[in-house]
């Protein structure tokens, strides 16, 4: 099954994309995606493959696909894992999928892999079964991708009108050295603001002086022009 999926992806590979993706995902020496490899398959095509195979593939086979050095193999595996989670009917199955996700999180090692999967699996599970401690633990890890998993997983909480973890994790990693965390923090604050603008404004008024400029700009992106201008000047 794994070889069949790899072949299906290989048939959809576009050489121009394979040349472009390594630059886009920063795979050079010392960059955040160092060593990642691409064959040049677009996300919509990967989703089609995932939709075709997710019912057929076992968790063990998914682990083999997720261990691949090829980025598209790992992302396609995650798309299939999401479908398995969303179609699962009981707690035990969902728990097994979450345990699998956490066991293999070292393979979920670029921003698109994290962002496409974590809130649909971890965020959903932790919210539905009151397992905030899983996300707390991830947010406390030194690994950049674990921290990003924690904050992006709160997307599910935001959709449900709950903002406590988003604010907690933003503050916990507000001074993280990498701009991928600054952007993620700002993005989730922006989503919080779309759901409840007063929550965002209250948070910014209290914390904007210590926020990286990137985080602040991302957070206020959907506010009207005058509000953005005032906040950037520290006027609330």
Automatic annotation (TrEMBL):
Cited Gene3D superfamilies: 1.25.10.90
CDD domains membership: AlkD_like (cd06561)
UniProt cross-references to InterPro entries, sorted A to Z: ARM-type_fold, DNA_alkylation
Protein name: 3-methyladenine DNA glycosylase AlkD
């Amino acid at each position: 099954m794994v070889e069949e999926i790899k072949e299906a992806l290989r048939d959809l590979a576009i050489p121009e994309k394979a040349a472009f993706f390594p630059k886009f995902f920063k795979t050079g020496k010392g960059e955040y995606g160092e060593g990642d490899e691409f064959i040049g398959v677009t996300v919509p095509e990967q989703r089609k493959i995932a939709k075709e195979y997710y019912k057929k593939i076992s968790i063990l086979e998914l682990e083999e696909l997720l261990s691949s050095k090829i980025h598209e193999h790992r992302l396609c595996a995650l798309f299939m894992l999401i479908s398995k989670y969303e179609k699962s009917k009981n707690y035990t199955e969902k728990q097994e999928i979450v345990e699998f996700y956490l066991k293999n999180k070292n393979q979920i090692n670029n921003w698109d892999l994290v962002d496409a999967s974590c809130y649909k699996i971890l965020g959903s599970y932790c919210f539905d079964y009151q397992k905030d401690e899983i996300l707390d633990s991830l947010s406390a890890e030194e690994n950049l991708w674990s921290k990003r998993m924690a904050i992006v997983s709160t997307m599910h909480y935001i959709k449900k009108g709950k903002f406590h973890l988003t604010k907690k994790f933003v503050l916990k990693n507000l001074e993280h050295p990498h701009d991928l965390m600054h952007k993620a923090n700002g993005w989730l604050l922006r989503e919080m603001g779309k759901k409840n603008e007063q929550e965002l404004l209250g948070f910014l008024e209290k914390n904007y002086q210590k926020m990286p400029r990137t985080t602040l700009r991302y957070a206020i992106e959907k506010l009207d022009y005058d509000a953005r201008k005032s906040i950037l000047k520290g006027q609330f």
